[in-house]
Design a protein that fits this description.
The complex is a heterotrimer. Chain A is mainly alpha-helical. In chain A, 58% of the residues lie in helices and 7% in strands. Classes of the chains: A mainly alpha, B alpha/beta, C alpha/beta.
């Protein structure tokens, strides 16, 4: 995960866009929590700079 | 321009996180509709290149759950 | 094995700037093992470059190829047709591979994506350390299999020097004193008497540059 973050930072993509979560099969709340957290974070950081440039 | 709706990709292990996502559905839990799930046999399969390719393909955020 | 580092993306990006068709060539030998220039790293670099270009709103075409080795013509030849479709070639091999590739396709611009570091071993997961300086005059028989030319910061043949300190080197507390290691190894082997042997000055004249070696069986042809 750290390596992926470094590679993204090098390109200039905020490494906070990628994350790892651990959960068990019965952790439905953990899954929804992770989904909401990452969606929220993506909203904060705005569109992916690569696609943003595409017409 | 429409309001920005982020695309989030989730790499899920079929035994834990995918089951958790399934359970979230059964429990009628509300969660972000922006998430696209990629089911894997095991998150041990996830490689850096898969994460990079997801961003290359236009993902706004990516997470691995397992 | 030859150990290398990948150059920072910024440096690679600036080298290829202005070119739209880029071929990235990996090497399946040493740099593959030390995780800087194998098939996987070719994919990663290609992905990074595509993303960096996409961020600027540019479109570039990147080809990916990984050869068995870049230090043999037979393998380099496999690129013959493909290479013509690209403006520049980025090699992820060691310096030798980059040069041989550039020599073979001397009408193409060949750029290095790695910094070649040393001849070493895999000490642990993701950790490599230097073991040989390629001095052309091996002394390992007398030093219990520990190379003072490489491991000793000063390359002393008749050590240790006054800077040895509880088995560590005065240059850095992180470094082991090569001659303490040698003493302990020889002691273990019951060969301590060999440490008393004085090495004459090192034969630097055998380190001709650039090195060249012809196998006996092929000398006739030369």
């Amino acid at each position: 995960m750290q390596y992926a973050k470094k590679l993204l930072d090098e390109v200039g993509i905020d490494s906070r866009r990628v994350e790892m979560f651990n959960m068990g099969a019965s952790d439905a709340q953990k899954f929804t929590g992770a989904s909401d957290k990452m969606t929220e974070r993506a909203r904060e950081l705005g569109p992916n700079p690569i696609t943003a440039k595409k017409p | 321009m429409n309001e920005f709706e982020p695309k989030v990709v989730a790499f899920c292990c079929q035994y834990c996180a995918y089951s958790a996502a399934d359970l979230a559905g059964s429990m009628r839990l509300q969660y972000s509709p922006n998430v696209r799930i990629v089911k894997l046999m095991c998150t041990g399969k996830v490689d850096v290149i898969h994460l990079l390719k997801a961003f290359e393909g236009g993902a706004d955020a990516v997470f691995v759950a397992g | 094995m030859i150990v290398a580092d990948r150059k920072p993306l910024e440096q690679i990006s600036s080298m290829i700037e202005g070119n739209n068709k880029i071929l990235i060539v990996g090497c399946g030998e040493c740099v593959s093992v030390c995780m800087v220039g194998g098939e996987k790293e070719v994919e990663i670099l290609a992905s990074q470059l595509r993303m960096a270009a996409g961020k600027e709103g540019k479109k570039i075409e990147i080809g990916e190829a990984t050869l068995e080795r870049q230090c043999d013509k037979e393998y380099l030849e496999l690129l013959k047709d493909r290479i013509e479709n690209y403006d520049v070639v980025v090699s992820m091999a060691c310096g030798a591979g980059v040069q041989f590739l550039a020599e073979m396709y001397d009408h193409k611009i060949v750029l290095p994506a790695t910094n070649t570091r040393f001849i070493g071993v895999t000490e642990g997961e993701g950790v490599w350390t230097e073991r040989c300086r390629a001095c052309s005059d091996c002394v390992l028989a007398e030093t219990g299999g520990i190379c003072p030319v490489t491991i000793c910061a000063k390359g002393l043949l008749n050590g240790p020097c006054g800077g040895t300190n509880d088995g560590k080197c005065e240059v850095s507390k992180e470094k082991d004193c090569a001659w303490t290691l040698i003493y302990n190894r020889l002691n273990k082997l019951g060969r301590l008497d060999s440490i008393r042997e004085i090495f004459p000055a090192k034969k630097y004249n055998v380190q001709t540059r650039p090195g060249r070696r012809i196998h006996e069986a092929f000398k006739e042809k030369e």
